[in-house]
């Protein structure tokens, strides 16, 4: 028998993804969880590659390294 009074209380909460998927689970937290990626939209599970660009990071990277070319042969 497990010891009484040492285990946390679990509450039923909702997990809401940015893609719109949501599901119920249990957690020690009383608040809902908001996720950016879930199993319905993650490329590993869907087989589709999706580019997630947060605040233009990919474009900034491309501009930064577009200036750097291959070294000129002498």
UniProtKB/TrEMBL annotation:
Q: Which residues bind Zn(2+)?
A: 17, 19, 38, 41
The GO terms describing molecular function are: metal ion binding; rRNA binding; structural constituent of ribosome
Q: Which InterPro entries match?
A: Ribosomal_bL28/bL31-like_sf, Ribosomal_bL31, Ribosomal_bL31_A, Ribosomal_bL31_sf
Instruction: Name a single GO cellular component.
Output: ribonucleoprotein complex
Which parts pass through the membrane? none
What remark does the entry make about the cofactor?
Binds 1 zinc ion per subunit.
For this UniProt record, the keywords arranged alphabetically read as follows: Metal-binding, Ribonucleoprotein, Ribosomal protein, RNA-binding, rRNA-binding, Zinc
Q: Does the keyword S-adenosyl-L-methionine apply?
A: no
Looking at the keywords, is tRNA-binding present?
Answer: no
List, alphabetically, the Pfam families matched.
Answer: Ribosomal_L31
An example GO biological process term is:
translation
Which cofactors is this protein said to need?
Answer: Zn(2+)
Quaternary structure and partners: Part of the 50S ribosomal subunit.
Q: Which HAMAP family match?
A: Ribosomal_bL31_1
NCBIfam families referenced in this protein's UniProt entry, alphabetically: L31, PRK00019.1, PRK00528.1
Family the entry assigns: Belongs to the bacterial ribosomal protein bL31 family. Type A subfamily.
User: What does the UniProt function comment say about this protein?
Assistant: Binds the 23S rRNA.
Q: What is this protein called?
A: Large ribosomal subunit protein bL31
Q: Gene encoding it?
A: rpmE
């Amino acid at each position: 028998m497990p010891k009484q009074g040492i285990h946390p209380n679990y509450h039923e909460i909702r997990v809401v993804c940015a893609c719109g998927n949501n599901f119920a689970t249990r957690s020690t937290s009383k608040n809902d969880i908001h996720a950016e990626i879930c199993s319905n939209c993650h490329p590993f599970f869907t087989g589709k590659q999706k580019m997630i660009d947060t605040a233009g990071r990919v474009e900034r990277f491309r501009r930064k390294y577009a200036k750097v070319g291959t070294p000129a042969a002498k």
